[in-house]
Amino acid sequence: MEEIVRVPIPPDEINRLKTSIGDQTERRKAFIFGHGLWSDLDRQKTVDWLDTILRTIRGMTGSDWHGLFVTPNAAGKGKPDQWIVSQGNKALMLYEEAIGIEVAKRGIEHLGTWNMSIQANKYDGVHLDMRGNLVKAMMVLNWLNLLDD
What we know:
- The chain has helices spanning about 10-20, 45-60, 85, 90-105, 115, 130-145; strands spanning about 30-35, 65-70, 110.
- It has about 150 residues and is mainly alpha-helical.
């Protein structure tokens, strides 16, 4: 698991990613890209970030891998007012839709979580409670299970 939360991605973070990927002789790989609010829902920043990571993955694994991009969940009623315009529910919905299109162009599947999380508890207006995170985890596990078919 690598945490890479800025663009341009520093070389040491790319090197850590390469180490995590391993060599091409290992079995088929699956990559789950979780994307939070660090980019302030800037679509171009997200695409630049993703393209850099994909170049690294493809350079090390070729085409024998699968990817799932998970976009952020809905905002809660406790979301601080200063973030409502840039990270509120309308911004999140538009971002999820646009990023879903971009990741599909790159051969990656998309798991949008806005709809499943709009009525969930967000104790601080941003983060899901344990039940909401378990639902996300189950969706990811179901996706991984589909890869074996």
